[in-house]
Design goal:
- Chains A, B: Residues 16-330 form the Enoyl reductase (ER) domain.
- The structure is a homodimer of 332-residue chains.
- Chain A has 332 residues and is α/β, with parallel strands linked by helices.
- Chain A folds into two domains: 5-122 and 302-331, Quinone Oxidoreductase, Chain A, domain 1, CATH 3.90.180.10; 127-276, NAD(P)-binding Rossmann-like Domain (Rossmann fold), CATH 3.40.50.
- The first copy, chain A, has helices at 49-54, 127-140, 156-167, 179-187, 202-209, 223-230, 262-266, 283-295, 312-320, and strands at 5-10, 23-28, 37-46, 73-81, 91-95, 101-105, 110-112, 147-151, 171-176, 193-196, 214-219, 233-241, 270-273, 303-307, 327-331.
- In chain A, helix 7 links the parallel strand 12 and strand 13 (270-273).
- In chain A, 54% of the residues are buried.
């Protein structure tokens, strides 16, 4: 066991776009677990748009500690345990932060099974798959034959949402940035159509791709794309609010989308937010379905694994720019 | 039976604020009911902020016919029937329009009981009471001890929502315009607090009146008041979207409230719209509760009855300016 704990520090709150200058590599002391805590060795760090949202202040987690280790979830192995719930060698998901080692309270960790492919614990069987599953099915409540739209469709969550939509018999339209991603959605993942928000008017392209209107919109981005979808929702439509990437990397818009609340009333829409951690207690149901779909070849798993803790800042910066396809993570 | 049918025509689409110049009194021929239709004599016309919203174009009803009779719901008596479901002397609720007589399809009418006080069929036992009941209880799902905020609280729907909130054991805060209305809410209707949006900062006054945050917000107004409430919602809060009065009389805001969808995600909020007519099939349950609460003295009924069809335009213009307390209607 190394006695050095490499860490990525978040040195200051970014005023505009996130850049490498906001991070610094450092070395900390090896953490010593207290009663109830577990010493973890980080294996894979999950990269999520939410990491950037946290920098704006308190969200569903407390505000970040600027100058300290950057927060983030990861898959880790238990090195030493002072919690009755864990023993050395166990795998766990938790907020390790961007560092080699972390001491975390056992009650804040989720125990993970030793699957053949550990990266799947962050993608399809982890935060991405569970977010897609619960947000789309429990909040979106799609019915066979309905039209589903998902934004950030080539991302970790969106790519799974769209495929579950096809499994459930829906017409699925993905919104993504760039022709290449759009082609991938339709040719590889079975989406019925894809809209390139960088190359065409989202409003018009959706009109053409969803001539019967939208029944479920899974929103990862907020902003003008949400506005375009709101205007085309059908009566009784559902909007699952998963994230607002368009608002995270810089100064958020001074106002929200037009149509709130007017269209919500007229069309009897339901807009509902959720956080995947609220559903962790219920994950057995999701994992059973997700595993069956993967085994049957109905759900393709796309992962984007970057090597080396020192590359974590650039991996997040690139994710915010839409570089990734599928679940991005860093192998520590 | 008179052979003259007085009518209020909507002569053009208002570009800004609604004024008397947008209406014209006229006389039409007595309508002749066709097969399946009923000839109605209008008794009371319901005035609702939604009347103004319809002028913007298609909503949950088709666009208005400018130059034609102004649309509007009312309580009417059946004069002649070519529908198997109605006979002369029956009372019905339907879209009579602003006129003495109308021929309406029987299937578009709701039969009404002959209660002692016919005005109650538009207030507590009609569109206002049912809107408050279903929107607050079914969409808002208040729990005992929670904090409820309702806007346009001195209006027909808001005044009932707040009183149901007290019946359900909630802390209830009303938002209304002017000191007099606010005092009426707390002293007469039992609200715990009232915020005068014309006289104080809604955001700050809510902070003081709802120190534990807001669990249910019943939104009649949209705009900046919705924005102030969104910012103070608790995790898991519900927003029942009933209307957007602030957006109806003039040019709607170019953008929506800040916090959509960011706060909806972070706080796992549910924002949901509804239209009372969707619940008409289920009204027996509501009427039973509403009647029991009125009988027990727990629910006070406030009505604002204006006399004369010719005064209907001014009655609507005044309602949009916040003149009324309780349910406004015109006795034809």
């Amino acid at each position: 066991m190394a006695d050095v704990n490499r860490q990525v520090l978040l040195v200051e709150k970014p005023a505009g776009k996130l850049g490498p200058e906001h991070f610094k590599m450092s070395q900390g002391a090896m953490p010593v677990p207290q009663d109830g805590e577990v010493l973890l060795r980080t294996l894979y760090i999950s990269l999520d748009a939410a990491n950037r949202a946290w920098m704006h202040g308190a969200t569903y987690r407390s505000a970040l500690d600027f100058g300290g280790v950057m927060a983030g979830g990861g898959v880790a192995e238990v090195v030493e345990s002072k919690s009755p719930d864990f023993k050395p060698g166990d795998l766990a998901f938790g907020d390790t932060g961007w560092q080699d080692y972390a001491a975390v309270k056992g009650k804040h960790l989720t125990k993970l099974p030793r699957v053949p492919q550990l990266t799947n614990l962050l993608s399809v069987y982890g935060i991405a798959g569970l977010t897609a599953y619960f947000g789309f099915l429990d909040i979106g409540q799609p019915k066979e034959g309905e039209t589903v739209v998902v934004s950030a469709a080539a991302g970790s969550v969106g790519s799974i949402v769209g495929q579950i939509g096809k499994i459930k018999g829906c017409r699925v339209i993905g919104i993504a940035g760039g022709k290449e991603k759009c082609e991938w959605l339709t040719s590889e993942l079975g989406f019925d159509a894809a809209v390139d928000y960088k190359g065409e008017s989202v409003f018009k392209a959706l009109k053409a791709a969803a001539p019967k209107g939208i029944d479920v919109y899974f929103d990862n981005v907020g902003g003008t794309i949400l506005e375009a979808c709101l205007a085309q929702m059908n009566i009784g439509g559902r909007i699952a609010c998963c994230g607002a990437i368009s608002q995270y990397d810089g100064v958020p818009d001074a106002a929200g989308p037009r149509g709130v609340p007017g269209l919500i009333v007229v069309k009897r829409l339901r807009m509902q937010g959720f956080i995947v951690t609220d559903y962790f207690k219920d994950q057995a149901r999701a994992l059973k379905d997700l595993q069956a779909w993967v085994a049957a070849g109905k759900l393709k798993v796309e992962e984007d694994v970057i090597d080396g803790l020192e590359n974590t800042p650039q991996a997040l910066i690139g994710l915010l720019a839409g570089e990734n396809r599928g679940k991005r993570m860093v192998k520590v």
